[in-house]
Amino acid sequence: xxxxxxxxxxxxxxxxxxxxxxxxxxxxxxxxxxxxxxxxxxxxxxxxxxxxxxxxxxxxxxxxxxxxxxxxxxxxxxxxxxxxxxxxxxxxxxxxxxxxxxxxxxxxxxxxxxxxxxxxxxxxxxxxxxxxxxxxxxxxxxxxxxxxxxxxxxxxxxxxxxxxxxxxxxxxxxxxxxxxxxxxxxxxxxxxxxxxxxxxxxxxxxxxxxxxxxxxxxxxxxxxxxxxxxxxxxxxxxxxxxxxxxxxxxxxxxxxxxxxxxxxxxxxxxxxxxxxxxxxxxxxxxxxxxxxxxxxxxxxxxxxxxxxxxxxxxxxxxxxxxxxxxxxxxxxxxxxxxxxxxxxxxxxxxxxxxxxxxxxxxxxxxxxxxxxxxxxxxxxxxxxxxxxxxxxxxxxxxxxxxxx
Length: 404
Ligand SMILES: *Cc1c(COP(=O)(O)O)cnc(C)c1O
What we know:
CATH class of the largest domain: Alpha Beta
Bound molecules: pyridoxal-5'-phosphate
CATH topology of the largest domain: Aspartate Aminotransferase, domain 2
CATH superfamily of the largest domain: Type I PLP-dependent aspartate aminotransferase-like (Major domain)
Strand content: 15-25%
Strand order of the largest sheet: 3-9-8-7-6-4-5
Largest sheet: 7 strands, mixed
Order of helices and strands: HEEHHHEHEHEHEHEHEEHHHHEEHEEEH
Number of helices: 15
Number of strands: 14
Structural class: alpha/beta
């Protein structure tokens, strides 16, 4: 079959099933208000939770980083791609999350791809062995893909019901006599479709009881939840009790690119030797490293940023409910506004863009049938008047469409 026939049929199928992803080009920087189609619109769809994507302090640090350390390092870390600033940032991240050490990756996708195969596929002197990974049903694509690199001959992969610690306990208990070399419990800290969190205190307890290591990917948690923005572990009172913590630098913390894994010094040393997305891939560019350090410093120094995010979130959740919209309750800035049918979500996000609000819809197969929704993401980059303007548009469009 020629490639054109092959892909055009699949593209048609995506369009027919309304799963084709359209890209709308912003004509401005990412911020609380952005320019689209020549119009200023309130942004409710970005992961720019702390408003650092276009923050003057962060931008200046990036430019200073280029001036002092250059544009790129043109090397993997172990060849000549480690600058003093890479180690400084790794120390800063470790201090922030309360771990012994941290290791940087080019993205958190790369971190997840590197992590699982580095452990489960390595014999480490064992003649024969078997590892097991227990995963939450709704885990992020990069956690799933990371595990796909683990060969089934040596790695059992089990799925537990979403955020269901009782189900996980049953699975762990059923396996407890088996002679696994390594047991891993893997979950997102915050789930991006619902804005809900993993039951971390139960998971910490189960990991201890069944001698498993606890892996949390807190991409939507770091910088976002917890009183000082330290993530799901802070919010749920288990800071420093996570064996393997993944975070991204591509969301709240600057929003450019990069990811990290934090944990014990030994595990981090080991990953520097074995994680293939670290060993065989380029080092993070200096501008991102210096800007990320500035972002962490800003977060530590200016306590009003996280507080503004949390206040805005509480305000938006309360007001949108007050208008008569049905949302999934919670505390996270991800606020799913439930609409039911996919066509309603599609029509409403298009109408809102015309009314000055940028928001994305999600529908089957991304979420279950009949649970189509708009996903609002609140940001500290917003001013109260931007939120009010968005709420006005929600009211107008919601009434017109008979949703409220
Ligand atoms: C966004 C996200 C990622 C990917 O992050 P990048 O750093 O952009 O690769 C990984 N895991 C989770 C849970 C995410 O939400």
